[in-house]
Design a protein that fits this description.
Jelly Rolls; mainly beta; single chain; 6-stranded antiparallel beta sheet; 2 domains
Length: about 180
């Protein structure tokens, strides 16, 4: 190769590298299909062959049963702990974690954390109800690019979930 070809090739590679470095942070943002929200499936610890699970248990004694579109979670010994997969969010935006279901026994909390479940962003207590209800936790994503939804409960806890969703509700000022 001639020297001018080498210089042109090096310049082209430098431009491509610089473009990748500038655009990489956008790779961590939600895709177009998740831009305004995510509805999580109710599969726990294993997929069903056609889709991967969105939930993981935090304790071996948690019993989960998916029946007729509802996920029943029961923990009688060590409390309830279930974690969503990390969910992509836009930094500096307002989101709502929306849970539809019912608290049958015990006391549960809905908590949003950073993706590594080290820092709680916000949380609410789920109120027991004989009827199905919606719990809504509004929070600001701050600098986070991924969050995890966590459901926690005490011993002797029974919780039924029909749907869990993360919804983008607008700008980050004044939310949470």
């Amino acid at each position: 190769m001639s020297r001018s070809t080498d210089v042109a090739l090096a310049l082209a590679l430098a431009i491509v590298w610089l473009g990748g470095a500038l655009l990489f942070p956008r790779a961590l943002e939600p895709g177009r299909s998740e831009g305004n929200g995510i509805v999580l499936n109710l599969l726990v610890d294993k997929g069903d062959g056609s889709k991967a699970n969105d939930w993981y248990t935090g304790t071996t004694t948690l019993r989960s049963e998916l029946s007729e579109g509802s996920l029943r979670l029961e923990s009688h010994d060590s409390g309830l702990q279930i974690f969503s997969r990390p969910l992509a969010v836009f930094a500096g935006e307002c989101y709502a974690a929306v849970v539809h279901g019912r608290e049958i026994a015990g006391t549960s909390q809905l908590v949003v954390t950073d993706e590594e479940v080290r820092t709680a962003v916000s949380g609410i207590r789920l109120t027991p109800s004989a009827d199905r209800t919606d719990w809504r936790l509004v929070f600001g994503s701050g600098r986070l690019r991924r969050v995890t939804i966590v459901l926690l409960g005490q011993e002797e806890n029974v919780l039924e979930l029909d749907q869990v969703a993360l919804q983008r509700v607008g700008g980050g000022a004044g939310c949470g």
